[in-house]
Amino acid sequence: MLIAPKNTLLEGTLVRRYQRFLADIRLDNGELVVAHTPNTGSMMQCAVPGYRVLLSRSDRPSRRLAHTLELVRVGRRWVDINTHRANRVVEEALIKGRIEGLEGWTVRREVRLGQSRIDFMLKQEDRKAFLEVKNVTLVCAPRTACFPDAVTERGARHIEELTNAVAMGHRGIIFFLVQRAEARSFCPADHIDPAYGRILRTAASKGVEALAYKTTCRIPYVWILRPVPVVLA
Q1: Cα–Cα–Cα angle for 23, 28, 30, nearest 5°?
Q2: Cβ atoms of 119 and 129 closer than 8 Å
Q3: pLDDT tens-place values along the chain, 233 residues long
Q4: Which end of the chain is more exposed for a tag (fewer CB within 10 A), N or C?
Q5: Are 103 and 69 found together in one domain?
Q6: Which of 44, 79, 114 is the last residue in one of the domains?
Q7: Residue 86 burial by CB count (10 A; 0-12/13-18/19+): exposed, middle or buried?
């Protein structure tokens, strides 16, 4: 998945993130710009002043901010913090048959399920699967990625809707897209949102499938690399 044309990517240093969707970035040429931050989470471990970042730039006159924060360098690796792109990365992998057990399913975006909108509905003959994507940028133990990085009532509601879908005879899948290259497994972030962890474990016991796949990033591309174990015990 293309992040942005390489000639539109700019490197700089994060000065601060504020009001959730804004970040001050000092570009390498010395210019200070305000960038849109497409991430509703806390960005714990990523929104750290002094970290290197990559921005894209758009010249569309309709945009309030020309720059968008795309990736943050954590340690030696770039981390994709753009939650909007996470869905496109997963969709690309689904269409190309790179997700084990979901090869050959047709993909439809943004479908209504109960009181929520779920990222994807997959179909194969008369079977349906509902799949919700979560972008994972947090590591809570050595080599263990975790989610969420802030309390998320919306995320819990999505899991409950997937549980209801399973009760109706469909597949329900919560898909954790792990953006941290050092991760070797995934678990819920119980220390941040214990209710989310409880709901996820209950849903798994009722048939909701929890999948975690790790990405790799080679500028200007990011794509799904391989699955990692989901640890719920």
Answers
A1: 80
A2: no
A3: 999 888 889 999 999 999 999 999 999 999 999 999 999 999 999 999 999 999 999 888 888 999 999 999 999 999 999 999 999 999 999 999 999 999 999 999 999 998 899 999 999 999 999 999 999 999 999 999 999 999 999 999 999 999 999 999 999 999 999 999 999 999 999 999 999 999 999 999 999 999 999 999 999 999 999 999 999 98
A4: C
A5: no
A6: 79
A7: buried
E strand map for 99-158: 106-113, 116-124, 127-136, 138-141, 144-147
DSSP codes, 149-176: SS--HHHHHHHHHHHHHHHTT-EEEEEE
- Cα–Cα distance, 192 to 213 (Å, whole number): 21
Placement of tokens 């030696």 in the chain: 76
Q: Which two tokens stand for residue 213?
A: 């796949």
Same structural domain, 103 and 196: yes
What domain range includes position 27? 6-79
Residues 6+ away with beta carbon under 8 Å from 200: 159, 174, 188, 210, 232
Peptide bond into 148 cis (omega under 30): yes
Token pair in block for residue 88: 């496109």
